[in-house]
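For reproducibility, we list the full input for the pyridoxal-5'-phosphate complex.
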Amino acid sequence: MLHLKGRELAWRESVRMYALPAAGRPLPKGQFYLVSKGKKTMDQSNTTVISSKMLGFMEKSSWIRKMFEEGARLKAKHGTDKVCDFSLGNPDLPPPDAFQKALETAASDKSPGVHAYMPNAGIPMTRKKVAGFVGREHQVPVSEQEIIMTCGAAGGLNIIFKAILDPGEEVIVPRPYFVEYGFYVDNHGGRLVPVGSNHDFSLNLKEIEGAINHSTKAVLINSPNNPSGKIYSDEEIRALSDLLTRTSKRLGHPVFLVSDEPYRRLVFDDLAVPPILRHYPDSLVTTSFSKDLSIPGERIGYVAVHPDASSRDTLIGALTLANRILGYVNAPALMQRVISMALDACVDTGKYQKRRDRFADILQDAGYDFIMPQGAFYFFPRTPIPDDTEFVRLLQEELILAVPGSGFGMPGHFRLAFCVDDEVIERSREGFKRAFDMAKASQGPVIG
Ligand SMILES: Cc1ncc(COP(=O)(O)O)c(C=O)c1O
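The corresponding predicted structure, in tokenized form, follows.
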């Protein structure tokens, strides 16, 4: 087995499925690894080709690939329409009309320079409009200088970590968390430090405080949360800000609050996500239009820097340079022009809410224990048996695809993405029941 030295990899949980070779297809010749306990773990010829770190990541995540291969096998055997696939957070609703209109307007613009290189932080006109939008959303006046257009929220997080992390510095994140955070922080020499949350997925400030030390550079939050659907309340954000203010003073350096918000506008029951910038000056917000406009393939988002952030000018300079030298150069020009015309547009969240309600009914009916998601498009129920990977296998027997909670730093749970047709959700009803009953039966009678 390949062992990574120095520290344990906290993210045994994976890379994103669709970043991996398409399930069911053979790997390109000469490429990597396969893992199983007690067997040879990788093609020796690759040990000199692929970095040991990447081999380690791939090895740690290979079980997820296997799971997805199993999903592909089920689809091939039973037909795609027979399998209920809740494994991917890939929005299925069509982008709003306002986006389509803006796209057509932008595409027909033949002015000189519309496809040219630009300032690395983005098109000034777009940044100005985004700044106005962020200012309204976060209740703090933000100027165009404080906006950096990025290749999605993933691009935003990577420029943030590139800009602020020295080797070995730590980023605290509450569990459960989006698996790629571990990779992003590692990309820039940092260390992701997951901490516990409360039973209802709210922030556990004691856990966060307990993890803070001199190497702590940031706390990373994601609300509405992938995978739990939790929205952190105004009180929670205020308390976290107070903690970080005290901590920064004590440590003698700012501890940044990084807020990853690609689901900010996908909220239910008239809830709202509290403004982050209003609460804490050393905050950085990153988001994208991937989910609220249903355009994840277009790779467009931004970072907003608090106007009073420590070393604001240097920070903005570092983020802008990071955007360039990480190889993004700048966010896609066409999309920058499009979103500047569609900032207020959003997919029909009512449709997601209806699906959530239907799904909640199915899960409740079958006996699952779950917290109702307040936003995003995921459920994160408890598994009826402790082994979440085993339970996901049981679901596969019912032709239901889900992701084990271990993939989000929280075993004993599983994630269901409801960005799928209502019909698929309804069709899963009996399968969820049978899997639950089978799992309970496998535990045997309760004695005493
Ligand atoms: C919590 C979270 N952060 C960041 C991202 C990356 O978003 P984008 O595709 O806009 O880069 C995702 C995508 O699923 C996500 O769920």
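Residues 234-251 form the longest helix (18 residues). The CA atoms of residues 256 and 280 lie 9 Å apart. Both points were considered when choosing residues for closer inspection.
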